[in-house]
## 1
Amino acid sequence: MILGFLGTGRITSSVIEGIFKSKLKIKKIYISPRNKTIAKKLSKRFKKVSISRNNQQLIDKSNWVFLGVTPKVGNKILKKLNFKKNQKVISFISTINLTQLKRAIGRKVKIIRAIPLPPISIRKGPVPICPPDKQVKSFFNQLGATIEINNEKSSINFWATSGMMAPFYELLKVMSDWLIKKGIKRSEAQKYVTSLFMALSEDSVINSNKDLKYLVKDSQTPRGLNEQAVKQLRKSGFYRNLEKSLNGILKRLNKV
Ligand SMILES: NC(=O)c1ccc[n+]([C@@H]2O[C@H](COP(=O)([O-])OP(=O)(O)OC[C@H]3O[C@@H](n4cnc5c(N)ncnc54)[C@H](OP(=O)(O)O)[C@@H]3O)[C@@H](O)[C@H]2O)c1
């Protein structure tokens, strides 16, 4: 299979890295010349990656085309490009919906929206796709865990939660910086904090068939440190604000 990536930025490079760590049988990958630096790096690193002359050439040569451009760029360029009949188009673009994509592409192609996240580069993490598609499902299952969603409106909720990556890293940063202020070396502080959250994340995945409130409860000793922390954070509105942020992102996504 020949893949094409329109837009060679953060998410495209993560997906391509993941592909070459997986068992997927890919004949060739064409990437667009932008971003020039990233495109050059990828083509140097992976023999099967070639930089196409322009966006149209990439589409002409590929079986599946991934859209890894920002919504602004997508709105500008998609209508000028000619997709092949029955080509598969997988869009990573957060705020262009299926109807708008169909209209912009203007050809009978199969369009799937997907939400890969940067850890796809290490073949980890969920990849919600909408609408369900057998081939795309098995493709992303090699790079993480595909979640098929029937209804586009419902898939928007997953987009909203994917906006919590930077807040998560900020949490790690604040904790590490706090340790550093207490005189601990950066390397030790960061190792401690990231290993702690790695362990907690793994444990929560193992327990993800249970209601997560049990993990919240089980990790607290009565009158212990965790009880104090969660109570104080609740009282300060930390979690209410988290929900507010999710609602804010959702509102923006629903405007599209
Ligand atoms: N990052 C994530 O975690 C993530 C996750 C899921 C989905 N997404 C979605 O994926 C899309 C890309 O996100 P990103 O974070 O990868 O953004 P990014 O790093 O800014 O990548 C966008 C790429 O598009 C290129 N580009 C600009 N104009 C172009 C044109 N006319 N033709 C071809 N390529 C062009 C840019 O090149 P220049 O640098 O030369 O402008 C850049 O390589 C967005 O719609 C985003 O919502 C992102």
## 2
Amino acid sequence: MDFMYNEVQEMLKDSIKRFVEKEVSPHVDEWEERMEFPIEVMKKLGENGFLGIPYPEEYNGQGLGYQEYIIVLEEIARASASLAIAVAVNGLPQLIIDKFGNEEQKRKYLPKLSTAEITGGFALTEPDYGSDAKSIKTFAERRGDRYIINGTKRFISQAGVADLYILLARTQNTGSSHDITAFIITKDMKGITFGKKERKMGLNATATREIYLEDVDVPVENVVGKEGYGFKIAMMALDSGRITIAATAIGIAEAAKDCALRYAVTRRQFGKPIVEFQGVSFPLADMETKINAARLLTQRAAFLRDRGLPYSKEAAMAKLFATDIAMEVTTNAVQVMGGNGYMKDYPVERYMREAKVMQIVEGTNQIQKLVISRHMVREISRTL
Ligand SMILES: Cc1cc2nc3c(=O)[nH]c(=O)nc-3n(C[C@H](O)[C@H](O)[C@H](O)COP(=O)(O)OP(=O)(O)OC[C@H]3O[C@@H](n4cnc5c(N)ncnc54)[C@H](O)[C@@H]3O)c2cc1C
């Protein structure tokens, strides 16, 4: 594994940085305040190729990997976690269709998702089933060459904004995870309605809503993979998604650390800059160290994924560690900045609110510990 960015990665980092400085940073406060998703900026990200990084060139992708994708996500998240999460969420239907879709589905949807001609979402969680995702109740009843879907999805990012969703529904009722199937549904299908925009602690520029499905008539060609493979598909997608959440959390933590450091070298108390007090400089040193450690874990998970090697445990460790340190870093950044840290005149209180949700989405951090420990038990069992 190389610890230096190669030429392509350097160029990518420069170009996304420039994009973010011009198109994102100046507008973030307004988007968050108005709770408005910047769909036009998402479209510009697509037009500039930033949404198709790890997908094949024949479907308007860049033919690169997750090691490049996380560079882009981290840079976007430094300015806007809302936009970064929308990019990560758009990535779930992209990777599911790319990996499990048939040729017709790839040609129909992938190029448009990569250029943001359409945007996507992922609908798994339900009011009664979050962590226990294999128990979902949304039901798709097969009738000839159609499925009739009924149910409710909850906390769906970009619901009502995105045009297309990968929706997980039961197609049998035996209680097994093999009963679940992945479907492509689109916003305009008859019987789909969206709930009110949830009022959230952070990520206010993204819409989070319920999706109601009432006798939604979906053709059999919208099944992704095979009937009964949906849970496997969803879990594999979440493995990749965890790498993107880790990168987003690192971006938030970097931004908070930068802000606190700048403040600490200029703010004076007792006749000197506060950074000269160890009570301030040591937390800053911890932030720097932990952010770097989180980035290395995340890069390693991406490296393994790009080589087609197992990466599920590494992705869970990256997500767990990066999001936990983002919470710690952002909380300590507020502390370093004292009263100003708590004020909306500075962005660190927003970073703290945004870091929190990263510990919850794509499987809570308790669920990451379940995933990691199960891998550990499996690994040791092979040697017993
Ligand atoms: C802003 C936001 C955006 C989201 N976007 C999406 C989206 O786009 N698509 C989607 O499908 N979902 C989305 N979600 C849902 C998210 O994935 C779930 O909130 C998450 O999986 C947890 O489920 P839950 O909220 O039902 O909590 P629960 O599963 O009820 O968990 C409650 C608590 O119990 C703990 N817990 C549960 N089971 C165990 C266990 N076995 N061992 C130890 N602890 C356990 C959890 O860690 C948590 O602390 C989003 C959520 C939020 C907040």
